[in-house]
Amino acid sequence: MNNNKETTRLSEQDKELVGLVAVGLTDDEIAAQLQIPKEEILNHIARLLAKLGAQDRVEIVLYAYSDPTLYERISTAVIRRTTKNPQVHTPSVKQKAS
Known about the structure:
Layout: H1 12-22, H2 27-34, H3 38-52, H4 57-66, H5 68-82
Helix pairs in contact: 1-4, 1-5, 2-3, 3-4
């Protein structure tokens, strides 16, 4: 897999796709999110794998979480967009009663 400096080479569409793959969406779910046919998603993922020098989706996930910019994007925009209740993914700290 290529170095994280490759992030600058990724288009906005690539970065969005990385985020959607990283949060575990299926091809069908990604197609629905991006409103494009599943076949296009498969082509985009194949190109993304080649761009990143990745062998599989697991490496896309590792790449996404190792890059601070992409991680921030995933933890905010992508999660908000892909879930009906973003608070589910936001941990809260509860204090004990004294």
